[in-house]
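Input.
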Amino acid sequence: MYLFEPFLQERTYLKGVSPATLRYYLGVRRAFGSILANPAKEGMVECIQKQLSSGVSAISVNAYLRGLKAYVRWLHAEGYAKEILRVQFLKAERKVLATFNAEQVQRIERYRPAGKNFTRAHTAMLVMLDSGLRVSECLGLRREDVDLDNLILRVRGKGNKHRLVPMSIELRRALFRFCGKHSTGQYVFSTARGTKVSNRNLARDMKLLCERIRITGV
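Output.
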């Protein structure tokens, strides 16, 4: 397992992976820790069976297997393994995710929330609907990243890559109102202490907000 630490260090210092990606690789270590020192097909199958028997879904196992595949390829590239262990993914049911329809989006846009948490969740939803930002990108927005004059959001994306994303005049109005009354600290969407809101807490508030305006199953 000791070789997994250099692998994580390379991903962190050379590849510049995000903290979320690093947490993902730590999940891979928990799932396949018993074979990381000496990856082999038999051990991989045993780890997979153990995961499935404990209630982990095939989709989640496949997510771990992608990380394991990256690790064994790294072992080969660095000369630690002569051959690359073939990683076979499990068959998993593919479901089409339910998404907002046009009428539901209009309901979200017209809704006027009360209270800081609902106002914060509503404004974050407007940002993501308007700009297409990922949740982590939205929550990572700093006040200095919001250029109301030029209708631009400066976004820090995956791999610490920066890009400029345009916003609509309607979103500018919403962000102007929100930042003037509710945003504290360096982040646009912050807690009462000025720290960044977690994905889980935002998801919770978004779900409750949607229930209030009778949007379910999305």
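The chain is about 50% helix and 5% strand.
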